[in-house]
Specification:
It contains twelve helices and 14 strands. It is an alpha/beta fold and about 350 residues long. The chain is globular, with a radius of gyration of 20 Å.
Length: about 350
């Protein structure tokens, strides 16, 4: 029996709706497998701004530093969009959490569930009925964290953001990608823009260095523009993708839509040890908040990744994934993945049915 302390950050928009369902699913797993998950809820993002004037209160950060893992919903919304960057939920809370907790490795698996293959916008002859790509996104470096500012230029005001990577940062994330590939189909595609950018030249050189330690893994390189095209032209080319913070942000949204809905994709943000933060890759969707229509599956699968990566509970993680597959096979759909002939359910009902399957 395990005892695990989880800091829960529901955040904004649909965050509270979807995280509640992931917590229910974890409860069900706890009951069945005899584990105790202790949830410690804290404010983050716009919710924290409204309550205490800052997007990441000290007591939230402290709780995040002193727990076994973090479950996060989403942050942000139009209400807080006009604040200065460092006060906005995105930079002031999410990016700060990633940085302060050293969560440099962001794993974003894009998997097509057989039952949902018709939801993919890609033609059936290209996508088939399966797709399994793992995007490994560098999360604490690059342009998100480089020097930035405003200055007076030749034509008036200018703004700039610097993309910088150290060899250390690239090698560290490349190692994560190669290790993951060893457990999968042993292929890594590194995405860069080394035909133009210095930072990408260093990126490519460092990845090639790391590849020497993994002779069994087949490595190829793609420029990001080509990769964006190949993802829709021939998605099956990809097994593990490794890329920078900003390219990973873009490519992972594209990969998610290929699987049918952004509402399905979980993520894990990891540091060197077992500690991690788990969140859906989608945003806070303020327009549908509280309406009981958001898809909780990405968050539920994120909880599954938590069990696997932070707690080493593989059977339990398998049980969550199997439950999601079963529920989809049985035809239950939230509105974002609904198609004729299936059964439309709300956020709560979807969470309940998945929890049921685990029991
Ligand atoms: C993501 C999001 C964030 C990012 C935003 C909300 C800052 O798009 O996790 O992909 O750009 O990293
Ligand atoms: Mg994004």
């Amino acid at each position: 029996m395990g005892n695990y302390n989880i800091t829960v950050l529901k955040g904004d928009g649909i965050g509270p709706d979807i995280v509640a369902e992931a917590m229910n699913v974890l409860e069900a797993v706890g009951k069945k497998y005899n584990h105790k998950f202790n949830f410690n809820e804290k404010l983050v993002g716009g919710a924290a701004l409204d309550a205490c004037g800052v997007p990441l209160p000290d007591d939230t950060l402290e709780a995040c530093k002193n727990c076994d893992s973090i479950l996060l919903g989403a942050v942000g919304g139009p209400k807080w969009d006009n604040l200065p960057s460092n006060m906005r939920p995105e930079a002031g809370a999410l990016l700060r959490l990633r940085k302060e907790l050293g969560l440099y490795a962001n794993l974003r698996p894009a998997i097509i569930h057989k039952a949902l293959s018709s939801a993919s916008p890609i033609k059936p002859e290209i996508i088939g009925d399966s797709l399994d790509i793992l995007v490994v996104r560098e999360l604490t470096g690059g342009i998100y964290f480089g020097e930035r500012g405003h200055r007076e230029g030749k034509y008036g005001e200018e703004a700039y953001d610097v993309e910088a990577y150290s060899e250390f940062e690239v090698k560290r994330i490349a190692k994560t990608a190669f290790e993951a590939a060893m457990k999968r189909n042993k292929r890594v595609t590194s995405i860069d823009k080394s035909n133009v950018l210095e930072s990408s030249k260093l990126w490519r050189k460092a990845v090639i260095e790391v590849a020497k330690d993994y002779p069994e893994v087949e490595l190829d390189h793609m420029y990001v523009d080509n990769a964006a095209m190949q993802l829709v032209r021939n998605p099956k080319h990809f097994d593990v993708i490794v890329t920078s913070n900003i390219f990973g942000d873009i490519i992972s949204d594209e990969a998610s839509q290929i699987t049918g809905s952004i509402g399905m994709l979980p993520s894990a943000s990891l540091s060197d040890g077992a500690f991690g933060m788990y969140e859906p890759i989608h945003g806070s969707a303020p327009d549908i908040a509280g309406m009981d229509i958001a898809n909780p599956i990405a968050t539920i699968l994120s909880a599954g990744m938590m069990l696997r990566y932070s707690f080493g509970l593989n059977a339990e993680a398998d049980a969550i994934e199997a439950a999601v597959t079963e529920v989809l096979d049985a035809g239950y759909r939230t509105p974002d993945i609904y198609s004729e002939g299936t059964t439309k359910v709300g956020t709560k009902e979807m969470g309940r049915i998945i929890s049921e399957k685990i029991k």
